[in-house]
Amino acid sequence: MPVAIPDATRGARGRRQRKFRAVRPSRAVQLAMRKELLALAEQMHVVVSPALKAMIEAGDYEALQAMLNNLREEWRLRYGTRARRLAGQWVGAANAESKRRFSEGIKDALGVDFAAIFDGPAITQAVQVMGTEAVNLISSIPDQYFQDIQEAVLKNYMGQPLPDGRSLIDQIEETYKVSRERAALIARDQTSKINTAVTQARCEELGIETYKWRTVRDIRVVGNPDGLFPKGSRAHGNHFEREGKRYYWRENPNPEDGIRNPPEDGPPGWAINCRCTAESVIDIDKLKFV
Ligand SMILES: [Zn+2]
Known about the structure:
Layout: H1 7-10, E1 17-19, H2 27-58, H3 61-110, H4 121-157, H5 168-206, E2 210-214, E3 246-248, E4 259-260, E5 277-283
Parallel strand pairs: 3-4
Antiparallel strand pairs: 1-5, 2-3, 2-5
Helix pairs in contact: 2-3, 2-5, 3-4, 3-5, 4-5
The chain binds zinc ion.
Zinc ion is lined by residues 215, 239, 271, 274-276.
């Protein structure tokens, strides 16, 4: 839908660039999803663990392995339907909140009511892609749980010690604890990634090609020489060093001086536990407004 830029903005002399504040991921969406994922993990553990423990006490490994295989299949199916529904709600809520925040930013920067603009194909596609990813991640919770238990059962059968001298029954409780931690991590990281993906799509639809990288500037920022994680890794690069630097959302074969191509670990909010955000740089001459 064509959108008119107010004359005051169009005619602004001097600066042809505007910045607008970073679109942060929604904490409310993250917490709602965390609650849902923890509830799913709990339902599974409450049903499954007494049967497994009884089988362990009976000492029948063959029956135990067969039972684990059946349970894994059963929970994959049970989770499948709910994962799709939950993923749809998750991406929908994260996108709606992201759009609201993006619209506020655009309104401040350009005086345009972006909320009235329908989502274009890039946004629809980002929502679909992130929805599929969310389904996979939700389904990975029971998968990982059963895989870890199967590995522990095998080790125990081979007479190998379990970590920290745990019994097999203790190890099942430990596996559940790890599943809960994973569920919380997935809720946080994926809410952030959805926000990044739809923000990038919104920027690209409007012709906003670049952003400034913003960290939260505390001791937990990866790469901060005085912080907790002075070194970056391949999965999570040195974000400290990127503070205030300008980046292209999408790889540009002929980058302008001073603008960097996308880093290997993705844009702000993409790497594991990343709390960085992208402050869009609006180049008024490149806007796809009419
Ligand atoms: Zn970061």
